[in-house]
Amino acid sequence: MTSFYDEIEIEDFEFEEDKQIYHYPCPCGDRFEISVEKDIARCPSCSLMVRVIYDLDDFQDDNDQGTTIDLGKESIAV
Amino acid sequence: MSQLQINKTAATFTSFNNHLFAFGSNTFGQLGIGSKSDSNLPTRCIFSNNPKDIFDFPPKIIVGGGNHSAIITHNEKSDSIDIYHRLILPEELSSSSKINWHHVTCGWTFTIATTQKGTSYIFGKGNFGELGCGKNVKTTNDQIFKISEITNFQKVVCGLRHCIGLTKEGICYGWGSNRYGQLGLLIKNLKEGEKKKKQNDNYCYFTPTRIEIKQINEEEKIIDVACGQNHSAVLTQGGDLYTFGLNKCGQLGYASPLKIQNCEIPRKVFNLPGSVLKISCGWNNTLLGKKNEFDEIDDTLNEKEGWVSKPIPLYFLPHTLSSLSKDVEIKDFVCGSEHSLCIKKNGEFYECFAWGWNEHGNCGTGNNIDQWMPIRIIPENTIIKGIGAGCGNSWIWTKK
């Protein structure tokens, strides 16, 4: 059974442009990392992972013409 | 802990004169033990490249943040400061013997050190206003930055992305992220259009802002503050406790997370059988010390869904840690990110106990199994002088 350390909203993640990844602090001192569009962020230094919560509004442009990502399409095997 | 491990630990402790030992997460060398490997047994800290260079001065305070740690050492002439990794102290501050350091706190990517006189210096970077030096300062590089508005800080403590400074007069100032109300400042009211622009600006405070704490009893002086990942606790002279911020795990100590998810107004914690003497916050929990007793609010012993596959109840009201038997003197306790340490007096000696998340060996037990009950981690007959904890790591300082 998979269990998560926490559930974190995507807007709480910080974006690192060089690597094109989102990251959030892990209690071990390292960072949970995910690339765009994934919904499970892992820490490279330990076994913990967090589920990423997306607010679909975040994926819309200011002029509301952006596309919405269907998160249901991509299932991630853990 | 097997007898073999205890003997090994004992050997480590008796073969050196040094006073400081570290264990736990060490990806960037933040333990200060001369390597970048985790250690699940207390390992001697090294303070220079020369192994014979014995660290003579007792540590005054040691804390850990995101992959870095800081220590203030005390000698007769001055209190000096060392910060390990990621941060290099500007020479003007590190070499100055004129500065007496009083307190230091490590956030995620920043460190704040306060002098005896009450000036707080900031090192590192922060996008959420953690540096407290205005909207334009997001990294300090090699420059010296200090909080210029307030010069009489007793201490500054920080959570992941927020800071609370307590002045010698007992006034609290907050800066950084207030996303969950962890600064006790009102969440800004924004119009729909504003919300979309730049999210950080909506809830971040970039300069110290006074926190109003409406006390129920007559105005008592605030004597201590502590910050968790996204919550904060304030202690008054009379032993009252006020909490605010995120309550996802019940860490505020007065309501179920199902009822109150977060609270931006400092609220008094009732249901405490006596007055509180000391507080410490982990990332998602709060520890309180009372006379001869010991309380923990919320995800007690890290009994939280995440690294266990069974449902675990959250403790959202304070309850006594009965496993640390009563009628003993708890000398000190400290919360790491998801584990805790305490020093308990047993006869003439002090014993150190640890519990919680232990993936990196941060409970010092010689293994990496999570500790659901406090476990004694170092041999008897060692005089334990103090403890420190950070993100998945711990320090113990001892005297032979």
UniProtKB/TrEMBL annotation, chain A:
Pfam families hit by this protein: Zn_ribbon_CSL (PF05207)
* Biological or metabolic pathway of the protein: Protein modification; peptidyl-diphthamide biosynthesis
Q: Name one GO biological process term.
A: protein histidyl modification to diphthamide
PANTHER family in the record: DIPHTHAMIDE BIOSYNTHESIS PROTEIN 3, DPH3 HOMOLOG-RELATED
DPH-type MB domain location is 4-55
Q: Name one GO molecular function term.
A: metal ion binding
User: Any idea what this protein is called?
Assistant: Diphthamide biosynthesis protein 3
Q: Spell out the reaction equation it catalyses.
A: 2 [3Fe-4S](0)-[protein] + 2 Fe(2+)-[Dph3] + NADH = 2 [4Fe-4S](1+)-[protein] + 2 [Dph3] + NAD(+) + H(+); [3Fe-4S](1+)-[protein] + Fe(2+)-[Dph3] = [3Fe-4S](0)-[protein] + Fe(3+)-[Dph3]
Keywords assigned by UniProt, alphabetized: Iron, Metal-binding
Tell me which species this is from: Diversispora eburnea
Spell out the family assignment given in the record's similarity comment: Belongs to the DPH3 family.
UniProtKB/TrEMBL annotation, chain B:
InterPro entries attached to this UniProt entry: RCC1-like_dom, RCC1/BLIP-II, Reg_chr_condens, Ub_ligase/GEF_domain
- Which key words tag this protein in UniProt? Repeat
SUPFAM superfamilies per the UniProt record, alphabetical: RCC1/BLIP-II
- List the Pfam families: RCC1 (PF00415), WD40_RLD (PF25390)
RCC1-like domain sequence ranges? 97-392
The signal peptide here is none
Query: Which windows of the sequence hold RCC repeats?
Result: 18-75, 118-169, 170-238, 239-292
**What is this protein called in UniProt?**
3548_t:CDS:1
Q: Which organism is it from?
A: Diversispora eburnea
